[in-house]
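ugh ok fine here u go
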Amino acid sequence: MFVSSVIAGMESERRAAEAAISSMQLEAWVFETLPAYPESARKISIELAKNCDLFVQLVGPSVSSIVADEYLAAMEDDAGKVLVLVKDVPHDASATAHIQKIAPAHKYGKYRDAKELPRLVQESIATWISRRVGKVVHRHQRTVDVFNKTVWIWPGNNWTYWIEVEKGERIRGRVLTDNYAYTFDAFLFTEKQWTEWRNDPESWDPDEEEVITFHFDKVANRKERWYLVIVRVALLPIGTPMAVKVHVTREAKA
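structure:
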């Protein structure tokens, strides 16, 4: 389990999180205690964020670019393995922007100091383990990928994917960019809603607006066609496409 945060100024919180994880007979990865590697610190931290079973990020007064990249790497691997705990202190511009980006994707926990953190870490991990075990027991071999690719959206364009759903099916998905500068609006429509949106797009509010991640989890009430629409927002150099990773799964009715 990888503990992510800036190191300077967060030493006591990092030790508290490591101790809390170890007390649950789990292995905590903290950068300070790792052995020497030939690769750069950034490369190793990104690799650990991708490969860990659970990613625990502590957000204090500030967030570095490496910490932000670790979060993106963990999200790219599995959004369901990410836990974010935010210290209740004034945040600088970097931390404020990071919290605003993660808020649509996670219900993050709050703590006041290092003394309060171990309980929150333990409770969050215990809840995560309980939910994961339930998924293994109740959903094993019922969920299949229907789309798992990187798509490119060019300036002035949007991207649409449709899927035929059956009554009782559960459709889940995540959309993720690889850079904070690449934001998008996201919509999940029924066929009727999609037709209305095409006729008058300005009258519709996105399900998520100007985000780098979008997650959905919805059960179909009837047999119909759904549309996932991603609208590019970020202003990039002319002629530069935006890379978006899209993963959609289908889970049959029990």
